[in-house]
Write a structure and sequence with these properties.
mainly alpha, elongated, about 140 residues, about 0% strand
């Protein structure tokens, strides 16, 4: 029964993490249009900071905790698919860290990228998520 609870909590945390990882770059896209120091820009700063601190960061931590616990309980640490999944989740965590830096840049009115950049950046978590889900469901190796 513990395994099913861990799996459920891992999936819930992962969904919350991915929702935030997909939404934050969309905020960046719109924030690019806001004049630095304007009311709109300041509103985006609050939204980005709260999304990161209240949803994305805790969800990432929970995803890692429940995922590693789940892998331990399931005895999956010898499985090749899990090694590949962990590598991709490390990449996703790196993207998360990059989002933290970009959020700080916006907070200090130091954005150096265009809307187009953030539109493309928004696809990175999507591709990683697809690959991770395929590894978990198909367990190809």
């Amino acid at each position: 029964m513990l395994y099913l609870w861990l799996k459920s909590l891992h999936i819930i945390a992962m969904i919350a993490w991915m929702a935030g990882m997909l939404y934050l770059p969309r905020l960046f896209v719109y924030h690019c249009d806001a004049e630095p120091g304007s009311k709109q820009s300041e509103t985006f700063k609050v939204m980005e900071r709260r999304l990161l601190k209240a949803i994305i960061n805790p969800a990432m931590i929970a995803t890692w905790i429940f995922g590693l616990w789940l892998a331990w309980e399931g005895g999956f640490f010898r499985s090749g698919w899990l090694h590949a999944k962990l590598a991709l989740v490390l990449v996703m965590s790196g993207v998360h860290g990059w989002y933290v830096r970009l959020t700080r840049d916006f907070a200090h009115d130091r954005n150096r990228h265009s809307q187009k950049f953030y539109r493309y950046l928004n696809e990175v978590p999507t591709v990683l998520m697809i690959l991770i889900v395929l590894l978990v469901v198909l367990k190809p190796f």
